[in-house]
Amino acid sequence: MVEPTSLDFGAIPIDYPAQWNTTTITNIGTEPLRVESVTLTEDGTGVFSFIGSIHDGRFLASSDVALGQPSPTSRSGIGDPAPHLGPFLLDPEEYVRIWVNYQTVTSEVDDYSGVIEIVSDDPFDPIFEVQLIASGTTCSMATTLSYIETLVAEAQGPLPFSESIPLNAVLVSSDVFSEHNVEDFSVKASEDMQWITVQGKVKDPDYYAKVTMEIIYTNSSEKLAVFDIIVHPYPAPGAKISACDSSGNLVDNFEIGGAVYVTGTGYAPSTEHAIGLVPDSELWLTGMNIQGLPGTTAQVISNSEGIIPPTLLWENLDTPGEYDIVLDIMGDGVYDGGIDPLDNSRRGSTGGFAIHELGIIFPLLLFVLYIGRANQRPRMGMSLGTRPSISAAKNAVAAPYSALCRSLPMTISTPSRMSSSKK
């Protein structure tokens, strides 16, 4: 599986710093996948290139090893372009992320395109293409400013923030449309007109802050440009995401054929978030793939109070196992440690919730009930001396199933009815 199947870099101002994006190759089969080659072909302008990533030794450029930075080194100007990658093997459920760099190399406004061709022994898609799209522009692009969670968590009182954005133009005006949990917000241009700076304070660091505004300025071509800025800290420690039922009751265990819902608190009001339901992981590391399983919900929306109401995540459950839920704050398809809220705190396991195959449990319960009932019947010719051994035998048979039943958080009304427990 390759996701996403296209990379749109959007409109990038000429002479703007290099931008990067990623696509991920995942082996969703049961056998090793051999990737013969990953080749980049573009329209001849040289704006697209592969970059070595510190996260994967198979794509590590020599200069990246010396740098030792946990990110593509194109931002430092020493990323090594590679027109061809591979071959390499991916084990089942293993993935590799391909980093693509975009950098304008001319002073002309134009549209650019390219293709990443992936050749493998996949029986269904032996040749797969990822489309690359970008355009040069003289107008500024939309910008999102984010602030690290640890700073928010440790702040006492209002949290100051300040961020500079490349301008290369003359500021004409700025107009704040809306503010939430922010005070003393302002925008100003540097004396050399090369930067604009937005600054202010987050009133309550335990909650999101958001400012949407419009900035109008003239660029070197004397054209007007408009863009919005959204300022927000990452979710504070109070931000939560949990599996639940349709009424919002927190649930850890579900039955085959049922449905999993999700709910959460502590988010930006009226905001759409990407979400991923993935197989349980014992250890979560930054950079892990969190793209949801096929057939599961990919987006959730918070209400005006920053609450994610019960939202259907997965219906007609058909695969027993343990699962985690991750809310993708950055929207980058990977887990960001300390940033993305994670539901993996189920008691006794690291799984966020579990789906149980109940068809096996009922026959075992009926068998235990049968043994107990049979033991209560009168037996001809049975001496009192044999009773303890029969009781012991019954307990020996029933004990494992009793322990199994106790391990499942459920209540049995009749052999055909069960109810899930709540967190």
Characterise the protein shown here:
This protein has 423 residues and is mostly beta strands. It folds into 4 domains: 2-137, Immunoglobulin-like (Sandwich), CATH 2.60.40; 143-233, Immunoglobulin-like (Sandwich), CATH 2.60.40; 240-356, Immunoglobulin-like (Sandwich); 361-420, no CATH class. Helices cover 11% and strands 43% of the residues. The protein is built from 4 helices and 28 strands. Strands 2, 4, 6, 7, 9 and 10 form a 6-stranded mixed beta sheet that branches. Strands 19, 21, 22, 24, 25 and 26 form a 6-stranded mixed beta sheet that branches. It has a 4-stranded antiparallel beta sheet with strand order 1-3-8-5, with no helix packed on it. Strand 14 (182-189) and strand 15 form a beta hairpin. Helix 3 (361-375) runs antiparallel to helix 4 (387-407). The longest helix has 21 residues, at 387-407. It starts with a strand and ends with a strand.
The largest sheet is: 6 strands, mixed
Unreliable residue runs: 52-82, 139-156, 220-228, 346-350, 378-423
Number of helices: 4
Q: Write down the overall geometry.
A: flat
CATH homology group of the largest domain: Immunoglobulins
- CATH class type of the largest domain: Mainly Beta
Number of domains as seen in the coordinates: 4
Keywords for this structure?
single chain, 423 residues, mainly beta, Immunoglobulin-like, 4 domains, six-stranded mixed sheet, 4 helices, 28 strands, disordered C terminus
